[in-house]
């Protein structure tokens, strides 16, 4: 990361359009990430099929799927959207507010779950 | 003469500099995507909340099963749609990459493949909506259980599909400019990169809709 990072700061006159040959990872990196996205998606589908065939406990299924989803999201943002090669200030500016959304989920879910015990569930 | 080549010592926040190290167009796309993430985040939060407290939620793997070869295969169409969208994200990344290398025709080819992926996805979605509507799914009810199911299905996939449609139109305009040599003359394919951010974001949102709406 630091090599690309330094390059951006040293030639950091961003009012100039970036030249065509600015630092970027080789094609292989994109193909590897692409492959992993397929593997992970297939893994998620497999979890679904396994939970159909067996009686996989719901919390386990949900945790597995969430972890796989977050891994896919991380790969897309880091490599396809080049976040990994951006300056740290931009990374914080975009990712910190996103954490607030996760905090919102974490804050609302216990409330929803406590409502189940109040209303009852099937 | 030596003072000219002093490396940056001051804080990047001191003014007169771009603290994020990117040009305004790309920064604005990131800010837009952040706000869009909040929109979808809000949808998913309220969906999760309602899903947890609603008894008798229809089983998505039954609702979205396809009848093929005399067997019900769960979520087959959705798995295919996921495959198509991830592939189009991959070709988009390669288009941006071709742009970095200044390869105009390769960039345009990969952009067209991306558009094709987007159109395929939209076609599948049109089929899915038609199928469910003929089976009696409405925003206020469905034959299988909790009436809220339809409302969330149409809102979530509808908003996402609208993003895909906008993306296809956006990418078509960008492809036209690539072919006309606008970016080649400018010596920068940043426009392709910014469009790429949008397209990858659409894929990103689908990751969460796929996980939380279809698989859960």
Summarize the structure.
Chain A is an all-alpha fold. Chain A is built from four helices and no strands.
Q: Give a short account of the largest sheet of chain B.
A: 2 strands, antiparallel
DSSP helix fraction of chain B: over 70%
Q: Can you identify the CATH class of chain B?
A: Mainly Alpha
- CA radius of gyration of chain A is 20 Å
Strand content of chain B: under 5%
Provide the succession of SSEs of chain B.
Answer: HHEEHHHHH
- What level of helicity do the residues of chain A show? over 70%
Q: Tally of extended strands of chain A?
A: 0
Q: Please give the domain count of chain A.
A: 2
Number of helices of chain B: 7
What is the subunit organization of this protein? heterodimer
How many structural domains are formed by the residues of chain B?
Answer: 1
Give the strand line-up of the largest sheet of chain B: 1-2
